[in-house]
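LAB NOTEBOOK - FOLDING QUEUE
OPERATOR: T.R.
BATCH SIZE: 2
PURPOSE: Compare the predicted structure-token outputs for two unrelated chains run back to back under identical settings.
PRIORITY: normal
REVIEWER: second-year student, initials M.K.

ITEM 1
FIELD SEQUENCE / FIELD STRUCTURE:
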Amino acid sequence: MAVLVATGITAASAAKAATSTVPIVFNTGGDPVRFGLVASLNKPGGNVTGVASLGKVLVAKRFELFREVVPKANVVAFLVNPNNAVAALDTSDAQAAAATLGYKLIVVKASSAGEIDAAFATIAEQRGGGLLQQLDPFLQSRRDQLVELAARYALPAIYERRDFAMAGGLMSYGTSLRDALRLVGKYTGGLLKGEKPANLPVQQPTKFELVLNLRTAKALGLTVPPSLLATADEVIE
């Protein structure tokens, strides 16, 4: 018996469109009910189930954390991949979170390496004082380019995944990828043993990680509040 594992709404939607019989396990930050992957979180129905993060809540939290580290910024950019199925929804969530904190939000789009370069130039032209980005497979794959450009433009940035902070990004906050993949693996194993996706509720990760890079903060002339340092899961010095 085969099982398909898909990361992100776009990939999960494509997998569901390809088969109604092979079990599918997804790991996504989007709402699987809103995008028609499952009938409900508790009773998925059909051949699809998986793990879904609280994307809207997380983006609001990242804005709050960014404010703590970069209190003087009032213009912030949000980088989004327009080809992502949840681009419009993620942008709307970012706009709402930014408005709550009084930020002017610059929305920049990129679906290629060249467009990423252009996006940073746009942020600089509009005097952006910080950057948040959509959780997107393509943008994740361009980690080194994104971190390098943030350093080149002296742009404070907060990311979803800890590997960005480990690679030199200022900070990251999001669900633990290890924890989410553990849940995906548990469901995959159960399906391979004959369990039915329709009977497995969509799970939500419960572990979140805050990683701070003090080397990058120093290079940017920023001081991380002691209260934030005390709550961080990892501090890079």
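ITEM 2
FIELD SEQUENCE / FIELD STRUCTURE:
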Amino acid sequence: MTTFPRRLRFWTALFLVTWLGAIHVAPAAAGLAPSRASGVTAIASERGADLLLVQRALENRLVAQKLRDYGVAPADVQVRLASMSDHDVHTLASATKGLPSGGDGTGTLIGLLLVVLLIILIIKLLNKEIIVR
């Protein structure tokens, strides 16, 4: 204990006690923030929820391209959708639940490449040889 003078030990201890006490004064608080104001919802009925599902499915690139290939204009789709009965809209919405939500597989391809590169790096770090025949 002769490497630190008594005065330096005192001031270091006092500084650390003050510093650590200041850090723990205000505890952190966290919680979920609502996405919209309470009591306000954009979907008023079951038909509205079904229409929202169908609209999202129609925004899919593949679905929009198929409709264009069949010669159906987007305005015609909206008019037809508005004139459908509740039962038909619900049937269409339940059929669209199996469609992909989006993306073209680029993220999956990049993820697979990263995994392969990581495996190669681990093998090289272990001084093993990689032989492809």
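REVIEWER COMMENT (ITEM 2): Residues 44-95 form one domain.
FOLLOW-UP: none requested
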